[in-house]
Predict the 3D structure of the following.
Amino acid sequence: MQGQVSLISRLRLDAALYEPAPIQSAGKRGRKRLKGQRLPTLMEVASDQRTQWEPLTVSDWYGGQPQALDYCTGKALWYHTGKQPVAIRWVIVRLDGKLTGLVSNDDHLQARQMIEYFVRRWSIETTFALVRAHLGVETQRQWSHKAIARTTPVLLGLFSVVTLLAHSLQQQGQLVSQASSWYIKQQLTFSDALAGVRRYLWQEMNFQTSGSAVVHVKMSQQQYQLWQNALAWAA
């Protein structure tokens, strides 16, 4: 996958890294070397007094706040028995005395880019955690993997549509909270948003032209609103 997928991940501070394999002289027999001499580990590099650390301020750290840190970086060769060697860029992040190692299989990436890209994973991870907790993702009961792959994007898309419509209804003052004598909510919840969107869509449907075979049943406006509210907040 070298050159096709750019991967950024954590790297153990004691990981074995190597120099590139030396160029084999012409006419020399035998198997070509896959790696060169072993390099110091990231822990040894961080402990070395000669290591030059660069300051960096990440504008969007965890929690959305700016964060100042130090880092050092370099290039190496990752090798494991039975695997093809991979040219990598490593980065050591130093923050409040704690060290974190990062690695990318794209050795042309800059260290600043690697750190910023790695921090972005937090918003992705929290998104997946929230959709698992509130939207039922990963609890679908389908028999095929294709059905599961289709359901997750549909759930996320439906949630986005409901959220956008509810936001518009709230700005128009049409989004209200369901209240009861035993449960008083201080803020609107997603159930309120879902109920508001349902009522809005049902009201829009009422203006469609009915077919000639439709039987009309008259009811009072109050009765219609009671039924509408009951169905809108139904699970």
